[in-house]
Predict the structure.
Amino acid sequence: MCGRIARSLDAAYVWMDSRCVNEGAVVSPPPAPPAAALDTRGGGPLGSAPGQERLDPWENVVKLRRLLVLAAASIFAIACGGSDSDTPPTDTSTTEDTAAEDTTPGADSVAAVDTVTAVDTALPDTQVVEDTSAPADTTPIDTTPIDMGDGICPGIRGCVAGCAGDAGCETACLDAADSAQERELYTTLQTCLIDNACDETAATDEDKRTLYECYRQCLPQIAACSAGTFGDGSCVAVGGCLGNCFEGDFRCERSCMSQGGEDAVRMFLDLDYCSLSVCYDSEDIVAMEQCVSLVGDQPVCSDPFTNCYGTTGAGTGAGAGGGW
């Protein structure tokens, strides 16, 4: 900036005196005015007032230049601060943003929400929880079929009952017998039932009660089929043992029957069938069981009950076995 001011002053000097040359040229003084130009009235320069000394034009130029030098020095002191640097000052003015607001439809002016999940600074759970549960049972599953006694005489009877008169099915049941003795026991019993017209196809409760009464006509054959062989156990013991067998488990029933004597097994079967011939009720099992528990008081079954238990009245094992 200071350099530009100096150059501007130099140009001013040239304007004032065309004979002045930039960059330090010597300015020659103007020539002396001719004698004819002198004011003859006052002896002063031309154009002076009467009685005054005539002014020198060049002297005015020199005075003006001195004034310019003083003005220049003042400007240098203020603007340059003693430094002759041409570095322009930093523009610290603030330019107003006059850009028009974007009014385009759909412009999203909502600031985006920061959804960054906070860092989980929780320490890992290093606590080890002891498993106190019982170890898993690794015992292999027994897939061996349970022998329900299908090959013994009572089992053969159950198999044939499910054939519904199919001769081929009945033959297969006999062929599955454990032994020829079991087939013979079955055949002997069936012959007795046929001879006494025991209808095993009975469907109604009344017909079934009649069938149970018919079974009492073939007690020796039924006892032989049920026990296979006989022991010396009492009628009461046989009844108590049968109470622990599941229905249809012919092996369990055979084991109980074989422990009783032949007469004991017959007495038990006689009491069982007599009770069912009186009390059988497929629709009300509870009422049937209550009836059986009191069968000893019935005149029709008092003798079989006395033969098994020795006294009148209901006793343990009454009605056990449930017939065939």
User: Anything to note?
Assistant: The two ends are 134 Å apart (CA to CA).
